[in-house]
Amino acid sequence: MQPQSPPAASSTYTWAGRFTEPMSELVKRYTASVEFDKRMWRQDIRGSLAHAKMLAKQSIVSTVDYADIQRGMAQIVAEIESGAFEWSSDLEDVHLNIEKRLTTLIGDAGKRLHTGRSRNDQVATDIRLFLRDAIDDILVLLGQFQLNVLDLAEREAATPMPGFTHLQVAQPITFGHHLMAWFEMMRRDSERLAEVRRRTNRLPLGAAALAGTTYPIDREFVAAELGFEGLCENSLDAVSDRDFAIEFCAASALLMMHFSRMSEELVLWMNPRFGFVRIADRFCTGSSIMPQKKNPDVPELARGKTGRVYGHLIALLTLMKGQPLAYNKDNQEDKEPLFDTVDTVSDTLRIFADMIAGITACPDNMRDALRQGFATATDLADYLTRKGLPFRDAHETVGLAVRRAEELGVDLPQLSLVELQTFSPLIGDDIFAVLTVEGSLAARDHIGGSSPEQVGAAIARARSRL
Ligand code: ARG
C-alpha cells in the first residue's frame, strides 16, 4: 500500500511549503505565464502521459495510478476543448494549472505524476513538441505556396519581361523565370526549417531540475513515445538552452526577408508605372479620401511584419546571452516571441499562397518596359564576340550604338543595318534575330538560364522535388 500525502498546505502554490508570506498581486502578474503558455496545453498533456507511462513501466508508479492519470487527463482535454476549463493565474503557468486540476480530479495519483520530473525539463519538452508541430504545419503551408508559384510560373514560362539590376532594365527574362527565383528562395527556406526540426526533435525529459533524477527512468522509452529522434544528452543543457527556438526564428527571419523582397516587387509591379501584374481586389484596400486608390496592403504588411520577426530573433538571442547554466526564469520570456513568429510566418504563407493564385500578368506592359531599356544590348555584344571581337571591345562598341539609339529615341533593333554597321563591319543582317526579345531569351539555353525551355525544365524538376 502506498503512503498517503500530508494534509494540503494552506497556500494555493504547489511549491509553497517553505514560504511564510503570500505573493503580492503585482509579483503574481509579473511572474505568471499562463495567459500565453496555455497555448501549449496539448503538448503538456502529451508529455505528461508519456512520462506517466514510463513511470508505470518502470514500476515507479502503479498501473492503477497510471490508469487514473490517463482518465484524469482525458477529462482535462475534454474540459479545455469545450472551454469549461478554468485557467488561473494564481497557478502561474500551464503546467501547474493542469497538474492541479488533475489532482483535484484523481487525488494522489495526480500528485505522483511529477515524480522524477521538474517543470524545467517539462517546459523544455513542451516547447520542443510545440515547435516541432508548428514547423510541420509551416512546411505544409510553404509547400502549398510553392505549388501555387509553380502553377503561375508554368502559365508564364514564356512571357517576356525585363529582368532588372539596380532596378534598371537589364536583360530580357520571362515572368516564369522570375517566379522560379522565388521558388528557389522558398526551397532553401524549407530545407532550413527541416534542419531546425531535426535539432528541435530531441527529448529533454529526464533532466529533471538540472542534474537528472534518482529514479530508474527510461528516457529512450519516453523519446520513442513522443516521436523524438534522440535525447538531449546533458541534463544541464537539456533544461537551459533555447538555441532551437533561436534557430527557428533565424530561419523565419530569412523566410520573411524573402517574402519582404517579393512584397516589394509586387508593390512595384502593381504600380501603374510598371503595370506588370494585377492583384485580386481582396488583397488590396482603398483610401478613405481618394476614391481612385487601390493599395497593395497585403504585400506592404508582409514587408512590415518582417521587422517584428527580426525583432523576435534579437529578443531570443538577447534572452540567452547572459544566462549561466542551468535553467533561469528568464527562459519564460522565450514563448511570446516564438509564438508570434510562428503566427506571423504561418499567416504570411497562407495569405501569399492565396494571393499568388490571384495574380494576373500584364504581358503587354512587360514588353513595353523591355522595349524602353535596350534590354538586348548584351546580346549584340555577345554577337560581336562570336564574330571574333574581344568582349571588352564589343562592350564598348555596343555602348556607342546604345548612345546613338538613345539620341534617335528608338530601341536597338529599330536601328537600320546600315546604321548598325557604322559601329562595326562585323554586323550582318543575321543581327535582327539576335536583337529580338525572343532571340535573346532562346539563346540563354542552359540550366538556370532564362530560355522558356529551361524555365519549363526548372518547373518540371521543381515539381518532382516537391
Ligand atoms: N513557466 C516556466 C517557464 O516557462 C516553467 C518552468 C518554471 N520552473 C521553475 N523552476 N520556476 O519557463
Automatic annotation (TrEMBL):
Q: Which family does it belong to?
A: Belongs to the lyase 1 family. Argininosuccinate lyase subfamily.
Q: What SUPFAM superfamilies does the record point to?
A: L-aspartase-like (SSF48557)
What is catalyzed by this enzyme?
A: 2-(N(omega)-L-arginino)succinate = fumarate + L-arginine
Q: Care to name a GO molecular-function term for this sequence?
A: argininosuccinate lyase activity
Broad class of enzyme this protein falls into: lyase
Q: In what residue span(s) does the Fumarate lyase N-terminal domain sit? A: 17-311
Tell me where in this chain the Argininosuccinate lyase C-terminal domain is found: 374-441
Provide a GO CC annotation, any one: cytosol
Localization of this protein: Cytoplasm
Q: What is its EC number?
A: 4.3.2.1
From the UniProt record, give one GO term of the biological process aspect.
L-arginine biosynthetic process via ornithine
Protein's recorded name: Argininosuccinate lyase
Pathway the protein takes part in: Amino-acid biosynthesis; L-arginine biosynthesis; L-arginine from L-ornithine and carbamoyl phosphate: step 3/3
* Alphabetic keyword roster: Amino-acid biosynthesis, Arginine biosynthesis, Cytoplasm, Lyase
What InterPro entries does the database record attribute to this sequence?
Arg_succ_lyase_C, Argininosuccinate_lyase, Fumarase/histidase_N, Fumarate_lyase_CS, Fumarate_lyase_fam, Fumarate_lyase_N, L-Aspartase-like
